[in-house]
């Protein structure tokens, strides 16, 4: 408990900051102070996500119509958890000492989408600067994130960590929330429904685990890497299919008496993924799109229309899905721990990123511990 | 009213039937008898739809996994209306003498989708033959349709025609129902929402009219033919944009302070239509896909995901939307009459098809009157 | 435009304030200053609502678990409109000079319900004071309202007034929004659905008008006062039934071949209203509860269960329904003007209240004009 | 397998039939033959439900507007399972030899509700006789049920029994389906949501088990019998409250920091149950009504309105919920076996009914085995 007091008097912390695109430096930065409805979190673990690579090399993702001013000293990192060390004015939702995972998006609360509860689709995303600062925050995207020892966060982005979870695994709560959100938008009533998850990355594996926890049956996973498929089995896939060695659309139809499945959760971003997804579906089925590549994909639109197929792109982790995912984890109905493969200290971030990007040693989720240093 | 009695004793009628693909002949056929839950309809007007051309040249649309036996003597035509001249056993929903428009799809009532109320997505579509005849009917697709003097129909496909409507215009009730269905799946709460309709064919123009009747605002219509856009204005479009002469995505964004609209109803089937649609949308917006070309389209999937866009393919006219559209017409909130342009007699079907296909003389909806003959 | 400049330098305004329960005084008060995301509105017209009487005699409605501190100098009045005369920091959603109607509820933006978009059900309602002020505002309920010359409001509560609308009628926009919200929660797809509205007060009459604008058919209105039913006809009721002189449940079933209607919007608060509503319904129908008396009502729960009936209580005007209602008014599909019956000056509030409470001279909506004085 | 062949040649079976109200006799009756879309089921186990007592003493439940002709020789019993021994014409959905549980309702397939997928709310319920027989079947309510050795059933009412389940426990699949349907109409997204179930009868205990399987947390159960509450704990209740000894509304609010829970599933039919349910809820919460007494209940309607509470009456087990519940059982996420307490032979039905009605020896679900005889 001592370190919390230390924080209050602390002047600086270690943080990775972005200079020019691709240039990360570990520097000393002032510890930020929480404002109204905010808390200060001591970051205990931060996972690396593919979007981090995008942020580091290209800037905040998904900006429309004009970029924010380039932010020297900006700290990326958006999959993190930690311990609350200070609460800002008006906060009684959380208390000092609680362990929390942190969602990315705190909506502005005043645009059309936020008024609808669609805070991850906030129309003021990126407008957290200047005269008309709308207060939107996207931790690690447009506001300082988790590759640092401390971070300020809005209470809306905080989710309590189940006690039995390690810090490293707790970084996967938000990923599980994204998977939960995807299943929500697919209709939510997944118990007893057939589900294909395409792509065995962190979101795909989480989709398998959440789908299984909610009773989807069967849960079929496709990927092109056998070791990933093996992890898929550990988190609950009933059937795994290696798309590199067999025609997965035919296989799925074969497993379903030619009818196809009710739901597909696309998490691969492969060039033909959307097309494969729709052809795996039963007439009247639904696809959630949770991944993408940078290139446009050829899509058989006629098949979508004549088969009454719905497709749902999901941005982040809306509808408080992270809180519900955390509840499943607390109930031990969901165990994301097989997804965590590697841990590094704060100063090892470049190595951690390399492990993640190059899938070194079977890396899936690579975590850094901002309070630790190798040297 | 005399002719109803005549029917009961009648032995034959005139009907167009399909032989080899593309071969239509006008022959004499027995008048069919209505079974349980069916009625016999004297067909008073039948409109031509693009799908008819597909049926005539290629067979029933949207078959998956094996075709039905080729049906010599099959009568196409699926947009028709008429007068009930006989009711089958157990029918008290309708009485002889009522004018009705006819929907395409009568679901099997026993598959997963029919149990959900998704009868246009019936999993037994096309299985209306042989030992395991599931009773599904798709008038003019898999069972005899409206290019004939009489047709048998299931009560589920019948919708009463508002009194003030001519026979010709009444063939447009089902088209209006398709537009209504599309707006339903977009969420239904369209009052006050901004809507773009792409493509000013019969469904697109109906989407403009229904959207306007339900209070969408503004309603923006795009097409590449000025005369069609002019009809769009007549049925209620607030803004029309000619895609041949201006960049419509930019124009739509310009009309919405850069944000984009909430809803797009894609009715053009143009190669870049889906891509244009998603880029016309506000983050968190929705697209209904009501048209398509035969070729796959390049789609910017990443934009869909990062903007939380939902896309809904619609098959036919589900959720009793036709009945609700008919109510709007009866209330004179919706007037599809500007879409009807030409009328021909039964024996003039080949000419009528040519007018429709080649858009002769500004043809939009071309109707034949099966009880009339030119000679 | 001059007066806006005056405001900036103005020190005080006239406002009615509440002392002890039931004690209203017209005093001078400082003009408040808008904060972040707020604007200052010059109040041009304020209508009187039954809830105002409740607020004045008993305090803020619907408090659960502990009252807020009694607020001397509190200004009631929650159905008002006016002109923006100053915008607070970060506001670019509105500009000075715009005419706006004002919704009651600005949610806290951080509770479970606000995160879902259910801002009228904010769990921090009433917590706009003290150390843990959550920022929730309910104009005229828990924060100063419209029986004054100026009021500060959050941008989320502002809706643009269609140009053709008088100030007096513009106070009815929010009432129309409540009716729209009720129809939304009933499923939204009301076109062609049969609807009974019970009770011809302002919300009931608005429900008739909005239901009719959206295509409900038939729209049946019940009340016990013929003059109110006559107004109901003016705003679109297809059938009116006087519950004092005929058995309305039987009448409704008689009008629907014994089946009952699909939707009932209960706006009377009569003791047997809920019971009547459920017995007017078709099996599988839905009731919106928009009114109530202070006494519990006897309800035939068995009928609800065995007929799969859903009932929806509505609090205020959620889901941005007010904005959509305003759009219908701007499109002239909806005209609330027959509901406005009387206008008074600011200092005549007690008289205005008496007219409203005692329905003097057929009063329905009684409006005061805060910028005007009789003397 | 031999007995199936025997059936085809069999002329008669043992069946309980209803004479005058309350008069049950065990007689010989012809084995019925399955029609189109029907199968013949050898009934292996039939549970007794409170509604059976109602049917036996008063006739088919929930008839509106006129009773069907009194049906001498009618066989009640609607919670049964068995083995398919013959399939009717067009049936390939099931094959001879499959074990199936049987739902109550097969909708007519042609009314407004069936077209919506709401087959348990079929508007032609009870109209399975006479000239306008609409084909609706409600096994054991309006058509012959399971207190017999054989029964004919529509394929829509059949659900495959998971292999590991005993015949006796398999009669509880439909009860689990009712619980699942209730949770569906409450929104379906119950993972992580707080849930109170009031009443620990078979549906209440099933609601606890299904709610827990889907991740609701906490699940709180109330009843007035400790032994029932103990079974509640076995099927997953996190907290049990004895309403006879403590004020349950206060207790629930105490367990939820004064806020109340998100969902209440009312399964007690107690006089104050609805009122208690709404006061246990968080603002914006939802109640499912799955039970009722014959007397109307006093309900605080004002509380419903001012707290935006929704109430959902549920009739039977719609939305294919039984199939999804069966899937959860097959996955061993749901175990209804603790609800089964007693088994009797066919001729012991009167004793079985007495055990059920009087809760002899802690009876919850009492099952008869129609293929067995005590003597």
Outline the structure in words.
The structure is a homotetramer of 375-residue chains. With 375 residues, chain A is of the alpha/beta class. The first copy, chain A, has twelve helices and 18 strands. In chain A, the strands form four sheets. In chain A, strands 3, 4, 5, 8, 9, 17 and 18 form a seven-stranded mixed sheet that branches. Chain A has a six-stranded parallel sheet with strand order 12-11-10-13-14-16, with helices on both faces. In chain A, strands 1-2 form a two-stranded antiparallel sheet. In chain A, strand 13, helix 9 and strand 14 form a beta-alpha-beta unit. In chain A, helix 5 crosses helix 6 and helix 8 runs parallel beside helix 9. Chains in contact: A-B, A-C, A-D, B-C, B-D, C-D. At the A-B interface, helix 9, strand 14, strand 15, helix 10 and strand 16 of A face helix 9, strand 14, strand 15, helix 10 and strand 16 of B. Strand 16 of chain A pairs antiparallel with strand 16 of chain B.
